[in-house]
């Protein structure tokens, strides 16, 4: 009888010996997940051939990543983000029908109870930053406008901070709002030009990025969650294509189709109409929602 | 230009996009490790196709695994153990020349400053359990005895607990000791028959084992670290082959060559000599150390 048939571990049979223990699992999905995780872990270890010290460093890294987490900080999500795992899970779960807008990561700064505002409202409550007006349409994949779509938008300010990161400095619900479309599917609101910002980089994940020669910045963007009855909810961003970090988002959230044009506009008439003091930025972007039962494109 | 050439993430090019960011890493070994880790992680995600909820469950599991760690408990080592990763790292780092004794996991209960004892001492300080005498030789791969080898031994008691798990219940340094060989390479000491015991199973790793239908037990064993000048240090166990969990060690530490015979002995003369009250267990096991410069067998 071979060693692995007795349940004894050998380097060659390591995967079969370990996954063989999962045979009494009641949850077949968990069994499948752990079979794959075990196999890929062992493949990684066999390829890396870590020393005992390197293995211990990995143990400490994972431990510290767990221990820095609290109500406000999720370092394992950050790790998943910087290794591209979050975007991969997003891609797998959001294979869209042709023509629908693409999704990207939610990020940690969404707030569930942002106020619903009248169309055209200015979500910048502290007059800080460069004025911006954003407009567009919410459409179905046939190009028809969607009525009663809810557009939940949030963004960082001109220094790269969200309101929840600067409680007491920024007003509550600064640069957040929910808008509802009418029969024309149109939306528009006023805001300020967002800026690139670093992901939290004072923990183990920031240290890892440093050691890998990677910067921690995300290019400037606006977040959207767009919901409408009978359509798939869309969680996405739009990005400033001229941002210095547009080709190196630390969390890999950028997609070609999410680049919007941020156009600098001099138009005193419109400035006056928008109650802007002078020149402003102008962004036009349509979003296309997939029907809830639309067939997916697949991988 | 393709999306991935701009640093944009796509499902198909996910590995190249993420590992492409490591090109400025100063530490080439870290770069190599993270390249492999990223590739294997993405392979696992693509094979599993986790839902967003499953991904979040994995994030919570890792977070809780980190958060239960403290000075006395290392749940990520436990996770590494039950997934066979610790034994795999041990195997990779301890490819022995033919004839040398095999290694196994250190475990979390070694104490650095156990007392050196005279040969034959009884390491059981509380007279609890079934008497046992262990003897053998420390040899080189030519079968020659090794002088001045230090044998650091520790074990759980007859209820499956180490002294450090029962401070105030067991005497300090109960069932621990260090012995030094003379020119004949022989060692012997007295102890009690160890018992199987569960790894700590009240945390996330214990919960995972339960959900996988796995038990948390390790078969009865004695731990050894054997050191001698000019020889590789050997960290290993010997196991009781009649233990009910011998074919299903929760941490995969059992190897064929580590099975020792635990023989029940009735011999009033020897019982008297050993100061045992009656029948006793007898274990004979030789250990063979590899020379520090011996060539390894390789994988």
TrEMBL record, chains A, B:
Coiled coil: none annotated. Residues 134-162 form the Intradiol ring-cleavage dioxygenases domain. It is an enzyme of class 1 (oxidoreductase). The keyword Nucleus does not apply. It comes from the Bacteria. Keywords: Dioxygenase, Iron, Metal-binding, Oxidoreductase. GO terms for molecular function: 4-hydroxycatechol 1,2-dioxygenase activity; catechol 1,2-dioxygenase activity; ferric iron binding. CDD domains: 1_2-HQD (cd03461). Its cofactor is Fe(3+). Belongs to the intradiol ring-cleavage dioxygenase family. PANTHER family: DIOXYGENASE, PUTATIVE (AFU_ORTHOLOGUE AFUA_2G02910)-RELATED, INTRADIOL RING-CLEAVAGE DIOXYGENASES DOMAIN-CONTAINING PROTEIN-RELATED. This is Hydroxyquinol 1,2-dioxygenase. It comes from Rhizobium tibeticum.
